[in-house]
Amino acid sequence: MNEDVIARIQRMVSSRKLAEARIAVALLDNLNHALTATASELAETAGVSQASVIRFSQEIGYKGLPELRIDLAQELSRRALELEQANVAEGGINLTDSMAEIIVKLAFHESLSINQTARRLDVDAIERVAGAIAASDRQETVGLGASGLAAHDLAQKLQRIGLNCFYSMDSHLQLSLACLSTPKSVVIGFSFAGQTLETHQALALARGRGALTVAVTGDTGSPVAEVADEVLAVSVRESPFRVGALASRVAQLAIVDFLFVRVAQLCQTQVREAVESSKDAVKPLKLGSAGRAGN
Length: 295
Known about the structure:
By secondary structure, this protein is an alpha/beta fold. The protein has 14 helices and 5 strands.
């Protein structure tokens, strides 16, 4: 398993099965207690049956609760060592943290988010998506809020190497563009929780038009993931101070870079020509450049 046990438990918080969501919340509320708790104790804490606890363990990839506990103990030890090495006393950001502590903690968590996402990412899936983008005649990226920033970033990168990629901050225009998709199109939707209605609608519309649809999301069982032909999974632990979706945005941008670099490799000749042309176009606008020397 590439994804660590805590990340898998976090994903279950948004499960549409109430029992699974309750167990995930109970585990995350006290991970250390979970190391020694019996199935009966966890069931009582979560307000579910013992059988539900066993099914939960199996749902996230274990034979049963004992195997989950072993993996959890190892993961907690590894994270404690990471925090110690990073000189971070606590995992979350507190109201009493100094500016220096905030910087260290955010740098640590954002770096960890990228590493977790890289471990969890399906390499074969991202290879297929990159190949499809390189071979397509039209692309669109969709997303709102912090996810919209990642969608915009990918669109800009693809445009700069000469690809026909569309993005709009207007959610209605995103839907209109999705309606113009063809079987030769690739539409990529960004939604960390996988619950964004407009992103779901855009992917569903594009899929109905025969386009290849891709979801970049933290929940592979979410509604947005369900309307995608390919799913690229984001794995993060958000700080309690989740203003602007800090860690999730960084992880999504990492996937953008992974994907873009592979597409650029597949379009080498086109990339060189496009990049040189774009450099020449903006060179006169650079301060101190030869193009402005006489102005």
